[in-house]
């Protein structure tokens, strides 16, 4: 059995990722990034990265900012020889400090994000988002009757008639609210009345913004920093409404949704 | 030297296991080192062990859980020890056989019950070293009574702080037994140190009452109120999670203070921060303080017993504040939040000062302690002034006299206390 190989990864501000392996002589070895298979996608994408001797007992592989990665989770493997069986790489220390304040800069379209992370099984993976435009959620204030969300649009601009739309998951129900839009056409803020969400049988509401009423909806989420999975760390209070509870939350894809539950 | 560690269970995760693996790995550079794990609960240790260190289990729980002798209570492993229920006649026998047959020159126990095994069962030719990873004061009165007697047959006791070494010297009468501090080591970080420019405060540790994260969260509320662009991240899992999350929400900090879950290795998270914190009410050592300092962070910590004040120099590489005082803790945080220059200077001092916990520094001290103790033992200077072979009988007589006196005193104290109640 092969022993564990620990890989380090350094992210820089323009999206470049540099992987480091304890491999003094890379020879014909390369690093393989493989998209995790998803339902309905028969042939997952893969990227081969050349490994180069760093001269200090390590071999380095660089993933340049372009071309962008497709959205999803990518696993990292070492392929020692052209036809060898890929060996999955264990995550060592990750240097992601430049990603922490990534939401401060406006992003052009398409919005492409990569966050390396240590998966639950200890292996290194890269979480990628790729969207024509993206609305980055900021502060969320859960009040007694309503929740206020502050967000910022990346990759396009908001018109004066922009619309925030909450769509019931596996349902045709929709609610719309008018955001207040900042003068720069990027920042916006909207308020969701809890009463609007609790009436019917919808449990999950997904939040989108339409920059103009006939534009493609842009998902509201939070992906522009160093946190690959925020569902269990960015957690907001649930507000009681009648006999039900309304709670904003981040999905497993870091998108913003509301959940309506019956306590007890 | 051939050195043999005796560990409760190397096949689990915990502070004692981490620090034993670190020390064993660093000693393996120049010595023949093995770890004997009394219990084995899975195929491989989850923590990384230097490949030069041999690992050998005595009882494999996966196969021997139902061994008849494993159902009978342990007699050598003291009943007053916290893990007594995990020990048995089987562990008594296996440990005894291992110690009787060992060819090591030095055996090192890593918890009180195992130190008692060494004291009672390791042959006289072996240097018997008992390590204390908690503190003397932390143990129950019952256990301390057992240890006072048993530890006389050790050659060396190591604590993780000087304060605890003093507590041992005060609380015991152990003629000829050296008691010395040997701090935990923290491996050299692989990443460049933190830059001190981020607006992020980081803490790490299990979410348990002893870590007093209530105080930290309330202290951080002062920071968030004055500097809303600062964030607090707490790494770790534990029983207090939901309660702490409710506190965060009640204080309106849901977008400022985050319970992040566990992170491995923590190094990836420390380097993102510019201030680290430790808010415990009790900390035998303070491993996360050293980890953070080795990544170049100044640490604001409570001044609890025993570790923090031996690691941090108040005002130089961190701050020490009273236990359980959110206002004082918050003021210390604000001082560093507001003064970029001071924060960076203290971070640099932390980086330099924490090098004394690098593996090579700690292992050098361990080697000196072991070499001195071995030399003293070979010269028969145990107990001092009584060279040669007669010492065991003599000390045994002295010991029992002392024990009798002590037991009488202890029961008198108990009686008085019981009477008062």
Assembly classification? heterodimer
The CATH architecture category of the largest domain in chain A equals: Sandwich
Number of strands of chain B: 13
Average pLDDT of chain B: 91
Number of domains of chain B: 3
In whole angstroms, the N-to-C terminal distance of chain A is 50 Å
Radius of gyration of chain B, in Å, reads: 23 Å
Total domain modules of chain A:
2
Strand order, main sheet of chain B: write it out: 3-2-1-4-5-6-7
One letter per element, helices H and strands E, the order of chain A comes to: EEEEEEEEEEEEEEEEEHEEEEE
**Total E-strand runs of chain A:** 22
> Based on CA inertia axes, which overall geometry of chain A fits?
elongated
CATH superfamily of the largest domain in chain B: Glycogen Phosphorylase B
Top CATH class of the largest domain in chain A:
Mainly Beta
Percent in strands of chain A? over 45%
Helix content of chain A: under 10%
Percent of residues of chain B in helical segments? 40-55%
- Tell me the number of helical segments of chain B per DSSP (H or I, 4 or more residues long): 15
* CA(first)-CA(last) distance of chain B: 54 Å
Domain Glycosyl transferase family (chain B): 196-350
GO molecular function, one term (chain B): glycosyltransferase activity
Protein name (chain B): D-inositol 3-phosphate glycosyltransferase
Domain Glycosyltransferase subfamily 4-like N-terminal (chain B): 13-186
């Amino acid at each position: 059995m092969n022993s564990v190989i620990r890989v380090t990864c350094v992210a820089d501000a323009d999206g470049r990722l540099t992987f480091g392996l304890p491999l003094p002589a890379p020879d014909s070895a390369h690093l393989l990034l493989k998209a995790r298979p998803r339902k309905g996608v028969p042939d997952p994408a893969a990227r081969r990265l050349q490994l180069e001797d760093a001269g200090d007992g390590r071999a380095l592989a660089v993933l340049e900012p372009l071309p962008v990665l497709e959205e999803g989770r990518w696993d990292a493997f070492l392929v020692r020889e052209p036809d060898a069986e890929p060996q999955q790489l264990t995550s060592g220390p990750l240097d992601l400090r430049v990603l922490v304040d990534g939401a401060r800069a406006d992003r052009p379209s398409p919005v492409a994000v990569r966050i390396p992370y240590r998966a639950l099984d200890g292996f290194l993976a890269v979480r990628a988002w790729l969207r024509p435009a993206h609305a980055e959620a900021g502060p969320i204030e859960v009040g007694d009757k309503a929740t206020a969300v502050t967000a910022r649009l990346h990759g396009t601009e908001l018109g004066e008639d922009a619309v925030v739309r909450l769509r019931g998951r596996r349902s045709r129900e929709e609610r719309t609210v008018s955001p207040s839009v900042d003068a720069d056409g990027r920042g916006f803020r909207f308020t969701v009345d809890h009463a609007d969400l609790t009436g019917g049988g919808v449990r999950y509401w997904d939040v989108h913004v339409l920059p103009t009423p006939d534009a493609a909806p842009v998902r509201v989420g939070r992906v522009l920093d160093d946190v690959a999975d925020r569902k269990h760390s960015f957690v907001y209070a649930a507000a009681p409404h009648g006999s039900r509870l309304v709670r904003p939350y981040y999905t497993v894809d870091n998108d913003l949704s509301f959940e309506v539950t019956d306590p007890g | 030297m051939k050195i043999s560690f005796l560990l409760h269970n190397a096949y689990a995760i915990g502070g004692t296991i981490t620090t034993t693996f670190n020390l064993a790995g660093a000693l393996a550079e120049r010595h023949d080192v093995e770890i004997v794990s009394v219990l084995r609960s899975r195929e491989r240790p989850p923590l990384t062990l230097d490949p030069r260190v041999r690992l050998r289990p005595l009882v494999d729980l996966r196969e021997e859980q139902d061994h008849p002798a494993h159902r009978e209570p342990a007699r050598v492993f003291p009943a007053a020890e916290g893990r007594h229920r995990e020990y048995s006649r089987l562990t008594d026998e296996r440990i005894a056989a291992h110690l009787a047959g060992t060819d090591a020159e030095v055996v090192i126990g890593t918890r009180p019950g195992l130190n008692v095994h060494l004291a009672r069962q390791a042959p006289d030719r072996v240097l018997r070293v008992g390590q204390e990873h908690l503190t003397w004061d932390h143990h129950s009165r019952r256990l301390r009574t057992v240890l006072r007697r048993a530890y006389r047959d050790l050659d060396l006791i190591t604590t993780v702080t000087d304060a605890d070494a003093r507590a041992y010297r005060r609380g015991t009468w152990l003629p000829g037994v050296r008691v010395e501090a040997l701090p935990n080591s923290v491996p050299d970080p692989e990443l460049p140190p933190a830059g001190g420019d981020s607006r992020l405060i980081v803490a790490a540790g299990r979410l348990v009452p002893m870590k007093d994260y209530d105080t930290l969260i309330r202290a951080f509320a002062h920071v968030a109120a004055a500097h809303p662009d600062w964030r607090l991240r707490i790494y770790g899992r534990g029983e207090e999670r939901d309660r702490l999350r409710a506190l965060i929400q009640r204080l309106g900090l849901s977008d400022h203070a985050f319970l992040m879950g566990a992170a491995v290795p923590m190094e990836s998270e420390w380097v993102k921060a510019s201030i680290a914190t430790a808010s415990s009410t009790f900390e035998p050592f303070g491993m996360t303080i050293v980890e953070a300092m080795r990544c170049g962070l100044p640490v604001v910590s409570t001044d609890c017993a025993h570790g923090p004040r031996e690691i941090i120099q108040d005002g130089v590489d961190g701050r020490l504040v009273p236990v359980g005082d959110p206002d004082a803790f918050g003021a210390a945080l604000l001082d560093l939040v507001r003064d970029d220059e001071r924060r960076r200077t203290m971070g640099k001092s932390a980086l330099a000062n924490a090098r004394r916990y690098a593996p090579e520094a700690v292992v050098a001290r361990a080697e000196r302690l072991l070499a001195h103790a071995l030399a003293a033992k070979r010269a028969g200077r145990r107990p001092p002034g009584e060279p040669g072979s007669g010492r065991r009988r003599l000390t045994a007589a002295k010991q029992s006299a002392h024990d009798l006196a002590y037991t009488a005193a202890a029961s008198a104290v108990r009686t008085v206390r019981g009477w008062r109640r």
